[in-house]
Structures are given as structure tokens and as C-alpha cells.
Amino acid sequence: ADESGHLKIDIADKHCHYHVEESDIELSGGKEWLYNLFEDKIEEMLKKVANEQICDLSSNAIRKDLASALSTVEVIIPLIPDVMSLDLSLTANPASTESFLDILHSGEIFDVNSRSKPSQDKPAFPSDSEDSQMFYIWLTDYGLNSAGQTLFSSGYLHYSLTQKELPENNTLQLNTSGYEISLLLPQISKSYPNKEIQFKIYPSSPPSVQLTEEAVELQVQINIELHIIQDDSTTDNVATLQTTLQLAGSLGLEDSRFIWSVSSFSSQSKLLEADVEDLDMDIINSALSFASHAFIKQYIKDKGSEGIPLPELGNGLEIVHPTIEHGEGFVKIGIDLAR
After folding, report:
1. d(Cα 289, Cα 292) in Å, to the nearest integer?
2. Sequence-distant (≥ 6) Cβ neighbours of residue 251 within 8 angstroms
3. 3-state secondary structure labels for all residues of the chain
4. pLDDT tens digits along 76-89
5. Lipid-binding serum glycoprotein C-terminal domain spans which residues (predicted)?
6. Cα–Cα nearest to 23, from 58, 48, 53, 56
7. Quick one: 151 exposed, middle or buried, by C-beta within 10 A (0-12, 13-18, 19+)?
8. Predicted model pTM
9. Model confidence over 49-68: pLDDT tens digits?
10. Which domains can be identified in the chain, with CATH numbers?
């Protein structure tokens, strides 16, 4: 690996061996009897030239053509334009054994506008000599957590919800005099009658992912700010809630698709601050828990059942016999390629 994380390749001349065991030439013409007197010498001369030139040509092709091609391979892969990219640069020289080649990539997902040092140290991979499949790809919670850190710091996960953002066929009224708000937040309805409401929703800390042998565990803390939209279009933040979502599930492969399932899901909310008194947090917590299960959990389950198709490689190649294995801090995916 070079300083930029590209794969660097070279060949030592002493390690190149090419040997022409035998050659056979036929000489014809008016002086054929004379030519054939030197047939053996000509054959030996051609064998010597071939043995020397083939190694030179091979070495030059590797040093120039292949090395040049490898140096231009993209090691920074955009994931979300202008938001985050994946760093696939090499972090160490490839290690080879009799049965496989081990290549370590960074795997860091970073903010393209402000790259900072990841909060989590890069993991040390456990030794693994399995070689029953052509390729093994290791996904770590380091990579997933660097993605969470990037989405958090970039503000990509900030949302604003008003009546305008709701679907046209929606019956929910984001108004202090609407039925739902009057039922859940009567104190706010009395203090701010007939006012439009804006919810500002954003994570209060980076999402946390932990990969174990049994499950994929995710925790997200979300702040929900309730703003009253005044007649002059300014807004007043009258309450801030914090909801902690915890879920666990597993990844799998089915019909050439990545799928996932949810085995546990919980939602717990608390009041951080409010400009009105006596908000009933029991009712609010129950309502947010119901909404989280009905919408967030169900959305994750539906997407998991739908799955994500394995990538198409083109050039007549396809991924076959995919496998997936959970471990402490990683998920290992094995694949074979076929035409």
C-alpha cells in the first residue's frame, strides 16, 4: 500500500523465470541444406532471446501498465452526495497465504465537508483462515458508527414537520385546537389557542450500533421540539422532549437479497424543558411509544422484509452462494462469483 492507500505492485527481476524447453524451426529455400547446418544454433539463440525478453516484457507491463491502473482506482466512494463518503484506502500491506489474500481497508465513513477523527478506534480483526468461498467481506460496527457520527454532525438527520409536510389524505391536525393536540397537550392548547404547530426532530447524539454474535443492536436518542407558529411566522419553542429508541435484530440473506428482522423494540420519552406547567408525561410517553411502534418499528420491519438486492456486477458475472455470519463487532459476508 502506498501513502494514499492505493495498492502498489512491483516485481523483482530475480523472481521472474521463463523457460522455453525446446523449439523447432524449419528452414527452406534454395540453400536449405546449408541453412540446416545451423538449425540447432539458431534454435538455441531464439530460446535465449525469448527467455530474456518475456521476463522484461512481463516486468514492464506490471511496473507500468498495471501499477498505473491501480494508482487511479477510486478509494473514496461517495455514499450521499455532498454529505458523506466511504474511505476504502488500504491501511496496511496485503498479507498473503497459500490459500488467500488478506486486504485491510479503512472502512471509515466521513463527512465530506468536515472530516474529523472517528470517536471509535479501528477494530482488530480476529484471525480467520476460512477459505471455502472466493471472497469474504467484513463489515464492522466501527464503519457503521462512523456513518452515524457523520450523519449526526452533518445535520442530515434533522427534520421539520408542519401541516404542509403531511400527506393530503392525512387526518392529523398540527394545530393547538386540533383533536389530537388538545387531547395530549391540553395545557398548550389553552395557552396557545388555534396556533399552527411545528415539530423539529433531530438526534441529540450519534446513533450507536453494536454488532454481536446474536444480534445487531441500535440505540438512537431523538429530541422533539414543539414550536408554536405565531401570526408573524416566527416560532416559539414551548416544549422539548427526548425519546430513546432501542432495537435489536438480525441480518440475513434470502433469494439474493439482504434482509433483516426486528426482535425487540422499545421507546422511552422524557421532558427536557417546557414553558407550560403540568404536562402529563405518562400520556405523552404512551402516545410517543405507540407512534414509534406503529410507524418506526413497522417501517423498519417492512423494509427488512423487502430487503436490498445484492449488487449486479456486470460483465457476465453474478454473485452466488452468499453467506452471512454474525460475530463480536462484525458481520462477515462470504460470496462466490460465477458466469
Report:
1. 5
2. 216, 258, 259, 260, 324, 326, 331
3. CCCCCCCCCCCCHHHCCCCCCCCCCCCCCCCHHHHHHHHHHHHHHHHHHHHHHHHHHHHHHHHHHHHHHHHCCCCEEEEECCCEEEECCECCCCEECCCCEECCECCEEEECCCCCCCCCCCCCCCCCCCCCCCEEEEEEHHHHHHHHHHHHHHCCCCEEECHHHCCCCCCCCCECCCHHHHHHCHHHHHHCCCCEEEEEEEECCCCEEEECCCCEEEEEEEEEEEEEECCCCCEEEEEEEEEEEEEEEEEEEECCEEEEEEEEEEEEEEEEEECCCCCCHHHHHHHHHHHHHHHHHHHHHHHHHHCEECCCCECCEEEEEEEEEEECCEEEEEEEEEC
4. 888 888 898 988 88
5. 129-335
6. 48
7. buried
8. 0.72
9. 777 777 777 777 777 777 77
10. 13-71 (no CATH), 110-334 (3.15.20.10)
Number of Cβ atoms within 10 Å of the Cβ of 297: 17
C-alpha span between 137 and 103 (Å, rounded): 10
- How many residues are recorded in the chain? 339
User: In Å, how far from its chain's centre is CA 22?
Assistant: 54
CA torsion 158→162→166→171, rounded to 10°?
140
Q: Which of 52-66, 104-118, 166-180, 206-220 holds the top average pLDDT?
A: 206-220
- Which has the minimum average pLDDT: 17-31, 102-116, 181-195, 301-315? 17-31
Q: How confident is the model at residue 28 (pLDDT cuts 50, 70, 90)?
A: low
pLDDT tens-digit map of 222-259: 999 999 999 998 999 999 999 999 999 999 988 788 89
- Give the HSE-up count for residue 65: Cα atoms under 13 Å, Cβ half-sphere: 6
Q: What is the dihedral of CA 186, 192, 193, 197, to 10 degrees?
A: -90
pLDDT, tens only, 88-119: 888 888 888 777 888 888 888 889 888 877 76
